[in-house]
Design brief:
Length: 186
């Protein structure tokens, strides 16, 4: 999972499953996004959560103060468990991990595509269709432009990287040429 640790993926998966069973998936997701938005607006709070010097009780109180009013109990308990297990510094990433789990549960996947120039509509449609065929999921495309790629594309879907950039192809060609045996001198 791009951008989230395996630990957060497990917490997000468990929270998502419980929230779906409780019929509160939308509420839980919204609560997590409010929390992550508040943490993004308060870098000092994130620094405190990551600090090994701040006692666990103060971290619990800080997380509690950042939760939205009427926060779903499953979200609150999951966040407190993260803090209790010494992973308070990862609280801010739980919203991203939730999004990945929720997309996967709905049969969708995020494909992060980096190209040298913006994709045109035909190229975008063709890429989405090919990725959908390969993954078996509905693709949500996130596009990035990096002129240093020269051409081609670098694609990340989940943990799968497909590097079809010209830079990667040139590097592979260089490696093959360096590894090729030279003909014997006569």
């Amino acid at each position: 999972m791009a951008g989230a640790s395996q630990v957060l993926a497990r917490y997000a998966t468990a929270l998502h499953e419980l929230a779906v069973k409780a019929g509160a998936a939308d509420k839980a997701g919204a609560d997590l996004h409010v929390l992550t938005g508040r943490l993004a607006a308060e870098p000092a709070a994130q620094a405190q959560l990551s600090s090994p010097r701040l006692p666990r009780e103060k971290k619990r109180a800080l997380v509690q103060s950042l939760l939205p009013a009427g926060c779903h109990d499953l979200v609150r308990r999951t966040l407190m468990l993260l803090v209790d297990k010494g992973r308070a510094g990862e609280v801010a990433g739980l919203g991203t991990a939730w999004d990945v789990v929720a997309l996967a549960a709905s049969g969708r996947a995020i494909a992060s595509v980096t190209t040298a120039s913006p994709l045109d509509e035909a190229g975008r449609s063709k890429l989405v269709a090919q990725l959908a065929r390969v993954t078996g999921k509905i693709i949500v495309l996130q596009e990035h432009v990096d002129p240093e790629l020269l051409g081609g594309a670098r694609i990340l879907v989940g943990s799968r990287m497909i590097d079809g950039s010209v830079a990667a192809r040139l590097a592979a060609l260089r490696e093959r040429m360096l590894a090729a045996p030279l003909p014997a001198a006569e």
